[in-house]
Amino acid sequence: MSGNVRKILHVDLDAFFCSVEEKFDPSLVGKAFATGGSASGRGVVSSCSYAARQLGIHSAMPMKLALRMYPQLLVVHGHYREYSNQSREVMKIISELTPLVEQISIDEAFLDVSDLPAEPKRIASDLQMSIYSRLNLPCSIGAASNKLVAKIATNIGKSNHRGNTPPMAINVIDPGKEQSFLAPLPVIEMWGIGPKTAVEFHKLGIRTIGEIIKFPVDALVKRFGNYAFDLIQRAKGIDDHRVSDFEGIKSVSNETTFFSDVNDREQLLLVIKQLSEKVAMRLRRKHLSGKTVKIKLRWPDFQTLTRQMTLPQPTNQDSIISRSALELFKQEWYQGKPVRLIGVGVSHLSTEIQQLSLFNNSFQKEKKLLSAIDELRERFGEKSIQKGVDPENFRSWKH
Predict the structure, then answer these.
(1) Residue among 243, 229, 187 nearest 210 (CA)
(2) How many domains does the chain have?
(3) Could you confirm whether 108 is annotated as catalytic?
(4) Is 398 among the domain residues?
């Protein structure tokens, strides 16, 4: 890679939660075990060792089912605070290599290493060994000319691995080979396409990413709306998004695509509340606030709309973001209308909340409450504590 071609790495820690558990309890190495909720309730597998994966166990599987498949499975109580600590240590090592780092989850990050003279494979190998030797944590890395292809490269590198040990894969896609690399892959490998969307492609006879490009554009637009043009660009391996640190981005958002369309009002309201809380917590973690709240909706015919409102002053409070998102949702949804995707976002970010808020008693009370909740979630996981839904928020709804 040379000239103006970017060199982007995507780092993904292998079975991160389990790798951390093995680090602090070496007796787990090589054994089939999982972290997650209790099998006595509705707990699910949050992560599982590669030995467990060989037995057909996977993340998001009900723990009860995992134990039914393999009764000898060891269930380990997750040490969530340590996961956060180890994640921070990994990001420190990555940041030593380049300041252009974008962390996208607790165990994933993008790096722009275009300014480094070495070839991507050498950079990836050195970084992988540095993380493993210093922290005893395995990772896999994808390298390409853009974020989209780099992430898919990581996924393919990991999926090609067989065995009880972490893959520690390195998969480099040379510039100019992006489209040919993507073409034979199943459509579900495309970043942003989930199982439900994959089924829609299958109905059109499209099974691979390459077939998206060959399909008549008009027919794609008819089925997916303007989203079709984005899909075609992705299928060609084109992605111009830059790698930037959190403070450099323009918005913070979370969204969820339902496995099947949802038209139940209470469920939709709960999802909006939960997404709002996730966005607010991410803002608080980075000491950011935002002035514009946005909601994204996608209907079963793949038509997508966004609506937004600007607040009098920036916020990172759950209740304000949730209330604003709900108001936007009420304006577009009517009783019984099925929804495929919901997203909540906050933009126009700033590093400080305006001083006016400091003299608001209710603001100060919620700030203290949210600080306590954030600490509990940091220690025991995001699902460890949930705020209830206030029915007063919905009683005035006329739909």
Answers:
(1) 187
(2) 3
(3) yes
(4) no
Of 89, 108, 189, 332, which is the active-site residue? 108
C-alpha distances in angstroms, 287 versus 336, 349, 371? 39, 10, 12
- pLDDT reported for residue 343: 94
Same domain, 90 and 72: yes
The residue type at 117: P
pLDDT at 173: 98
CATH number reported for the structural domain that contains residue 146 in this entry? 3.30.70.270
Alpha helices in the chain (DSSP H): 16-24, 50-53, 63-69, 80-97, 120-135, 147-159, 178-182, 195-203, 209-214, 217-224, 227-235, 265-285, 318-332, 361-380
364: domain range? 250-393
Question: Are residues 169 and 196 located together in one domain of the fold?
Answer: no
pTM of the predicted model as reported, rounded to 2 decimal places:
0.65
State whether 28 and 159 are in the same domain: yes
Answer whether residue 287 is part of any domain. yes
- Stretches in the chain below the pLDDT threshold 50: 1-2, 247, 352-364, 377, 384, 391-396, 398-399
Residues 167 and 191 both lie in one domain: no
